[in-house]
Amino acid sequence: MKVLFVNKFFFPHGGAETVFLQEREMVKNTEGFEVIDFSMKHEKNLPSEQSEYFVDNVDYNNEHGLASKLKVSRDFIHNKQACEKFEQLIIDQKPEIVHFHNIYHQLTPSIIKIAKKHGCKTILTAHDYKVACPGYGCLIDGKVFDVKNINGSFVNLFKYQWHEGSWSKSFLMSCEAVFHALKKSYENIDTFVAPSAFMKSMIKTRLPDANVQVIVNGIDATTTEIGEDGGYFLYCGRLSPEKGVPTLAKAHSLMKANVPLKILGNGPVKELLEKEYPNVEMLGFLQGDELFNIIKNAKAVIVPSEWYENCSMSVIEAMSYGKPVIGGNIGGIPEQVLDGETGFLFEPGNAQELANKLDILASNPELVKKMGLKARERMVTKYSLEVHKRELIELYHSLAGK
Fold it and tell me: pTM for the full model?
């Protein structure tokens, strides 16, 4: 069976690319499957036999003149070159299934209809809320909102400046959303893959008739092991308000117990944290063995998000090392963290409640161990790459009628 994997970046770039490249490798190494690729040209790209079909690099962060801006805006909504090259690839390679990942803006959803035109079965993995919210994050001024507030009209996207507080960017997002709504681009997806039940509900809010299957993200369980309790709490990720990091720092200052808090990552609130919470150990950006050892030896990992996390890799990574997780009761986190069993949930933004949960684990090492073992067990049975692969291959066979 030929499966065409489509993603705008063909190198490790973010969470979407991590999953995309994992799946591509899994399918490539599965008997009876052949993988082909479609992406955007870039100097960091991994090798691909189909690189000649790749689209010219599009960078929306560069400065553009007026004529260039008009062309960039057009390609942002409908990339003609991507459509032409994608169609030629399908004609030449004849895939049975096309699996779309992160295609927005550079490749554009216009290519979905081309796959259907040539009789391919189509899948789109929703790594973010783009299908439900044209501005991706379901945020207004850093606060989450109910996508039902769109009330059937994308005009409100422009009205509320939902994208980076910019009128021009919000207007362009609105035009893009209206264009693909009129073209019914997403209606040409046979199956959406949602990494969480919460994501499924968000997709169904905008596309009530969509076929959505939940397949959670996974980690190779053979590459991790249960760590020790190193006596510190840990946060790993972007340092931004919607991630709840300021709430975590405040909660740490409210704790009765004296347990260190280590924070990994960079972002816009880093200077604020360093200034207002000098007792927090700021470790900056780490990767590789240094990063994994910090996670492996934490007492517990904190995921204090105040926005709609999908299927948090931070939670899964913590579970893989046998760590309890204290997470915000929002988005997909409650599906991952079993409250009172593999960790605790707390009201997002409630520093005192978070401090109370931190104190419970700080004073009860046996509970830390018990929850950690339960978390590791849950990760192996539900969030392993083996489970992910099995469910994905079953979906392919189901769509192909095999």
Answer: 0.90
- The dihedral built from the CA positions of residue 100, 126, 266 and 256, taken in this order, carries a sign that is negative
Of the CA atoms within 13 Å of residue 297, those in its CB half-sphere come to 9
Please, which residues have CB within 8 angstroms of residue 280's CB and are 6 or more apart in sequence? 249, 252, 261, 262, 263, 273
Measured CA to CA, the distance from residue 269 to residue 274 in angstroms comes to: 9
For the cut 60, the answer to whether the pLDDT of residue 352 exceeds it is yes
Q: How far apart are CA 303 and CA 243, in angstroms?
A: 8
- Work out whether the CA dihedral 354, 372, 223, 227 comes out positive or negative: positive
Surface-to-core class of residue 305, CB atoms within 10 Å of its CB (0-12 exposed, 13-18 middle, 19+ buried): buried
Strand bridging mode 233-236 / 300-303: parallel
Instruction: Output the DSSP codes for 11-57.
Output: SS-SHHHHHHHHHHHHHHTSTT-EEEEE-B--TTPPP-TTGGGPBPP
Cα pseudo-dihedral 154, 157, 159, 162, rounded to 10: 170
- Dist CA 225 CA 126 (whole Å): 29
Tokens 């606060």 correspond to: 143
Q: What's the pLDDT tens digit per position in 172-189?
A: 877 888 888 889 999 999
Say what the alpha-carbon torsion angle 280, 284, 288, 289 is, to the nearest 10 degrees.
Answer: -30
User: Which of these ranges, 6-10, 56-60, 147-151, has the smallest mean pLDDT?
Assistant: 147-151
One-letter identity of residue 400: A
Give 172-236 as a DSSP string.
HHHHHHHHHHHHT-GGG-SEEEESSHHHHHHHHHH-TT--EEE----B-GGG-------S-EEEE
